[in-house]
Design a protein that fits this description.
Layout: E1 9-21, E2 27-40, E3 45-49, H1 56-64, E4 71-79, E5 82-83, H2 86-92, E6 97-100, H3 113-118, H4 126-135, H5 152-165, E7 170-174, H6 182-197, E8 201-205, H7 209-213, E9 218-223, E10 226-232, H8 233-238, H9 246-253, H10 288-292, E11 297-300, E12 303-306
Parallel strand pairs: 3-8, 3-9, 6-7, 7-8
Antiparallel strand pairs: 1-2, 1-4, 4-5, 9-10, 10-12, 11-12
Helix pairs in contact: 4-5
């Protein structure tokens, strides 16, 4: 019997809420992620797709333990079979788990680029840094510059390089390619693919599904703070008939090359989520059961789907 592959990162029933102040200084909790699930195995790239506000970047912050103090995280969050406690997150952050942040503001404005890329690692990985900088078209002398001396695209390439230099087992790349040329973006994804082929893992948070599916092994689709489907990347190349959730199909059809077909309605705001299935108000297949009950995650045709009708 084939031995089941062990997970590197396992997340399920994850919820993230923020303590907010209402009128009259009354406090309330705003839940922005609910019942989110994601599993990542060594040797793969998992692309995380979905519209803005679906919880993609919050997932990265929850894994790394860098949410603000008014955040509450609940659920099952394990790395290499052990719970990711705040203490363990601090220990792993920047060593075994590396982040490519979405904002170039993460660069320290008072520190030279070379020192930031090398971090606190000893000995300094200057050869590795030079190799990666060269592949990204960052010329000699870039390491002596300060962030304000970089263009937006250069800053983005430096952020990706900083994560690639580490010996991290898991890299979380949050929209790593905006501001890059197509050639540079492809080079970045190629390097992520090389790391995965060496046995490491990458979570690629992106809006560019087309580019992601060229390098990813699986795609996790987020909607309104939860995971609605996880599918082999090849299913997005095949077309909507290979996908399982109505939102995944709609996402595919909304791509420019697939007709740019919009659907009615909009993603609900975190403070006014509907009962039952979160996609039900926009779903053409909704039934009374969808409106009143939350579907469980099911395995369907080599993927996972949170839908009563997914097949």
């Amino acid at each position: 019997m084939e031995q089941k592959k062990e997970t590197l990162l396992e997340i399920h029933d994850l919820s993230v809420s923020f303590r907010m102040y209402d009128r009259g200084l009354e406090q309330s909790d705003l839940q922005v992620i609910s019942d989110l699930y994601l599993t990542v195995y060594p040797g793969e790239i998992v692309a995380v797709a979905g519209s803005s506000g679906s919880g993609k970047s919050l997932l990265a912050s929850a894994v790394l333990g860098i949410l603000p103090d008014n955040a509450t995280v609940k659920g099952h969050l394990h790395y290499k079979g052990q719970q990711l406690t705040p203490e363990r997150q601090e220990q792993l952050r920047g060593t075994e788990i590396a982040l490519v942040p979405q904002s170039v503001a993460f660069l320290d404005p008072l520190m030279k680029i070379g020192a930031q890329a090398d971090g606190h690692r000893r000995p300094k990985p200057t050869d590795r840094r030079r190799e990666i900088f060269k592949r990204f078209g960052l010329t000699d002398g870039t390491e002596q510059l300060y962030p304000f001396q970089l263009s937006g695209g250069m800053a983005r390439r430096v952020l990706v390089s900083t994560a690639l230099i580490t010996e991290a087992e898991l890299i979380i790349a949050d929209e790593p390619t905006p501001g890059m040329s197509l050639e540079q973006a492809l080079e970045a994804l190629k390097m992520f693919r090389e790391l995965a082929d060496e046995g490491k893992a990458v979570i690629l948070i992106t809006h560019d599904i087309d580019l992601a599916t060229e390098f990813a092994d699986r795609v996790a689709v987020f909607y309104a703070g939860t995971t609605v489907e996880t599918a082999p990347a090849s299913d997005f190349k095949t077309g909507p008939e290979a996908l399982r959730h109505p939102y995944s199909k709609a996402l595919w059809k909304a791509l420019p090359q697939n007709g740019f077909q919009p659907i009615d309605g909009f993603q609900p705001y975190a403070g006014s989520l509907p009962g039952g299935c979160l996609f039900a108000p926009r779903c053409p297949y909704k039934t009374e059961k969808c409106v009143n009950s939350v579907p469980e995650v099911r395995e369907v045709r080599g993927g996972e789907v949170r839908c009563f009708h997914g097949a």
